[in-house]
Design brief:
Layout: H1 3-8, E1 11-13, E2 25-31, E3 36-41, E4 56-62, H2 67-77, H3 81-88, E5 95-98, E6 103-112, E7 118-127, E8 131-136, H4 142-152, H5 162-197, H6 201-232, H7 241-307, H8 322-343
Parallel strand pairs: 1-7, 4-8
Antiparallel strand pairs: 2-3, 2-4, 5-6, 6-7, 7-8
Length: about 350
């Protein structure tokens, strides 16, 4: 899908031009309940002697444009070349793949990016026996906050294993969907008010833009539900039973996001129907006024046409009260018609 197509869907890709991309870095955090060691690697050759240490290792990679760095990490951890290819292909549909000694998950991370749009980037997670590797297109964001929690030693992260860290990253990604959902809710309310108050052509463009964005959100949310459902079944020994309880909570959140996206999409269809009905009613009101005006002028046109005929022997044309009488007749005809229209509730 091209970037132009993404923009048409109300989705802004997280990718950047090669000249503006930040350097690709791999932050390696090895931690346990009582210790934490953090190192940053920016060159593939720095990872040649990399080995996993005891406890839990989290490798957080910011950027996926450096194939050599990803291959170096894959070679050190035994990640299959097909998985490495999926990591660098940032147009993946959310999916889950079990390679036996590790799990690979590709999901979309969302964040608001203006009215009726959101920024989307692919996040790849690799879960091994005692390590987690995360790949983001852009640095910072949600995962950076998790790193800060690790450094601070707060919560359960420091005392749980790699499976819990994997859950935490996935849960944080899903939680970001609710921020986008809230943005859509506020935007829908504003459009509903505008449709009722002043349904202009620009409102129609906003409705279609929001519908396209909701379709893009739905395409990210529904496959994510299937991914979390596959993890929640507990088929892989890499995810301990104690973590499955938390994954069930994530699954509930994905269901909520998917159903809310579907509900909002149906609401926008209803708003579009209201807009079209408003425009139709407005057109009908205009046509009614024009029809009433035309109907009033029909007898007036008849009277002026009848008395405007050039008959020499028409005696009433020369009568002194002829003009006032005809004018009074026209006013009376107009009044009678207006009273009739009012009685019928046409005006």
């Amino acid at each position: 899908m091209s970037s132009h197509d993404d923009r048409e869907l109300g989705l802004v890709s997280g990718g950047q031009d090669a000249s503006t991309r930040p350097p690709v870095t791999a932050t390696v955090i090895n931690y346990g309940e009582t210790h934490l060691d953090e190192r940053v690697y920016a060159r593939p050759e720095d990872l040649q002697g990399f080995t996993l240490r005891p406890a839990v290792t989290w490798i957080s990679v910011d950027g996926v444009c450096d194939g050599d760095l990803i291959q170096a990490i894959g070679g050190a951890l035994g990640i299959h070349p097909l998985t490495q290819e999926d990591i660098m292909n940032t147009r993946q549909r959310p999916k889950l793949e079990d390679y036996g000694d590790y799990l690979y998950v590709a999901v979309r991370m969302l964040s608001p990016d203006g009215d009726s749009e959101f920024r989307s980037e692919q996040v790849s997670l690799v879960l091994g026996a005692d390590y987690v590797v995360s790949f983001q297109e852009q640095p910072g964001g949600t995962f950076e906050r998790i790193q800060e929690h690790l450094r601070a030693g707060v919560g359960r992260l420091r005392i749980e294993g790699a499976g819990y860290l994997f859950y935490t990253l996935l849960d944080a990604t899903v939680d970001d969907y609710f921020i986008v959902i809230e943005m859509f809710g506020e935007r829908i309310e504003a459009i509903e008010d505008a449709v009722v108050a002043e349904p202009g052509p620009e409102i129609l463009q906003s409705i279609y833009a929001l519908k396209r964005s909701l379709i893009a959100l739905r395409r990210s949310a529904w496959p994510l539900r299937d991914v979390v459902a596959g993890l929640e079944r507990g088929d892989s020994p890499l995810i301990p039973g104690s973590t499955l309880v938390y994954l069930r909570d994530v699954y509930d959140h994905t269901i909520q996001v998917a159903e809310t996206a579907e509900t909002y999409r149906e609401m926008m269809s209803g708003v579009l129907d209201i807009y079209l009905s408003s425009q139709s009613n407005r057109t009908n009101e205009i046509m009614k006024v024009l029809t009433i005006i035309a109907t009033i002028f029909i007898p007036l046109t008849f009277i002026t046409g009848f008395y405007g005929m050039n008959f020499v022997r028409a005696s009433d044309l020369a009568h002194p009260g002829g003009y006032p009488s005809v004018f009074a007749l026209m006013i009376a005809a107009t009044g009678i018609m207006l009273l009739y229209f009012r009685k019928k509730d046409w005006i």
